[in-house]
TrEMBL record:
Keywords: DNA-binding. InterPro entries: Cro/C1-type_HTH, Cupin_2, Lambda_DNA-bd_dom_sf, RmlC-like_jellyroll, RmlC_Cupin_sf, TransReg_Diox_bact_type. This is Cupin domain-containing protein. Coiled coil: none annotated. The keyword DNA-binding applies. GO terms for molecular function: DNA binding; DNA-binding transcription factor activity.
Amino acid sequence: MDDDQRAIATAIGAAVRTARKEAGLTLREVAVKSGLSQPFLSQTENGHAVPSVMNLHRLAQSLGTTAHSLLAQGERTPSSLVRAGEGRTFELAHDSVIRFCSTGSRTMEPNEITAAPHSEAGEHTEHAGEEFIHVLEGSVEVEVGLDEHHVLHVGDTLLYTSTIPHRWFNRTAAVARFLIVSSPPSF
């Protein structure tokens, strides 16, 4: 684990412990609610393990919060500036990366995804609110429910109700880069 990964693991662990205590839950109760093992949750809280994106979502839901809230650092400020090449990142499946395009707690969540060739989001997700996608580079396929499949290219946008199970794919041999904005925050 390098220094950045250690810092992320420590920050996530502290946030999980705080959220669990605020919810008045034991590790055992969180394990049952989230479907994650109690030893893994203990390692997470102690900064020795970083949950996958899907496990972070499950963990956040069991704590009555969002993954974004667990990852957010600092208090809400009137503005949030994240310069190009900066911002916290989190590795998704298949060497794809999410970059958080805002800091602190917000009512919407703008994130930039850099999707490696032949990668995908993994499992379908669903959450309250709406989600907006804007493609910056390459192309991405978005599946919304069982019947909707959209191939988006540079400049294309898609807005959908995020209570419907959804996920993205990069089925090409090139990197895809796109913005996903969720309201309210879901990550």
